[in-house]
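Re: beginner question about structure tokens

> Can someone show what the tokenized structure looks like for a real chain? I only ever see the sequence side.

Sure, here's an example I had lying around. Input first:
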Amino acid sequence: MIKKTGKTQRDPKFIEALIPIAVLIGSIVLIVKMFGDDSMSGGAQVSILLATAVAVFISMICCNTKWNDIENAITENIKSIGSALIMLFLIGAIGSTWMASGVVPTMIVYGLKILSPKIFLFATVIICSIISLLTGSSWTTIATFGVALISIGQSFGIPAAICAGAIISGAYFGDKLSPLSDTTIMASQTVGTPLFTHIRYMLITTTPTMTITLIIFLIIGFSFDIQPISQTLELSGQISGLFNISPWLLLVPVLTAVLIAMKLPTLITLFMASVFAIIPMCFAQPQFMGLLTGTANPDGMEITKAIIQTIFEGAEVNTGIESLDSLASTSGMAGMLNTIWLILCAACFGGAMIGGKMINSITNTIIKYLKSTVAMVSATSLTGILCNICISDQYLSIILNSSLYKKFYEKEGYEPRLLSRTIEDSTTVTSVLVPWNTCGMTQSTVLGVATLSYLPYCFFNYLSPAMTIMIAAIGYKIKNAKETKLIRKK
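And the corresponding structure tokens:
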């Protein structure tokens, strides 16, 4: 008899699992140093694929993992982000159609008249919070109202990065607490916590976090040198000269809000939001359409061609006024291609880390050292952030974080709501802070601000994990069945 001498497959060691992450972070830092703002236009993608190759090499050579297992994990990872990629194309279409139709310019002109510069950042957080709470979608909030608000903020002389931080802080607050939010529903369902029990329990950590965030933005607003009123009025006049400003154009966001209230699928809502804007493009903005077509009186065929081009490649205008040209020019669906390229590369890296069982190896090592509530909550939070870095998709990160810790929380006697809240406080809100995560790259593209530029001002997003750990340290409303039994016995 001839014995088989094939090597036995094993799980990667803790140090082995950390190597691809170290390669990813190190190479991204190098790419950013070399390419600066252009780092996400190719360099970052190469870095992620390099880290993927390292993960595959370690899994196959050191741990004898089969290629089929890794390939299947990568395929499943890419499959899971399919709807997100379509959503990105639709967001690109909305950005262009809402601008060309005069919807965003109208919101900007009215916003400049209504909003006070000193409390603009404070108001922005509140506005985005309410919209996101009602819609259940941070992506929709940022892609529509967020685009208008960042333009208004820049008109006041506030840097785009600070405006983006306020928009994202508000949008993710609403997304996190909304019963319509897919991440909120997913976090509660995967753990087994009733939805409204989960939301009420999140208020314990979310309320103080949001309060601190609002105070910070209020202080920044009052300490900032605001653009003189004459300059904001000048910009408002320039916008009004290029676009026909009318309250009727606000019917487009109102109709979009109606579709959201009807709880239609996000993809349908985003598609219809861009369709709604096509009508005013045809009839309400003759001057702008003239610039796009290059003729004063374009015919039906020329207008149709201009609309299609605006949707797929955006609009570029040249009025001779730099600030106005920058505002009115958009990139359409084509502007999302770098983002989609990055997300696909990130999905490959996440699949390699999952298929090679590297995420499991890291968390299993961490669990061995969890001896207290604070340690357990801290580990869950850090794992959520780690998943956002490694897997690059918040939905997969939520599911994986839940599956990794669910049985451990049950074994230790903790209520499921503690796990679901910790996942939301860390995994959901930090996804937008990772440059190569689907959320981070999407919001960076939509708002036109690099992820690492707006990151320092997303106070709500990075204060949330700190707050959930602090509440765990205090022990407020955290019940442990084992500890309760011990107290009763005593």
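Each token stands for a local structural state, so reading them left to right follows the chain. Confidence is low (pLDDT under 50) at residues 1-5, 484-490.
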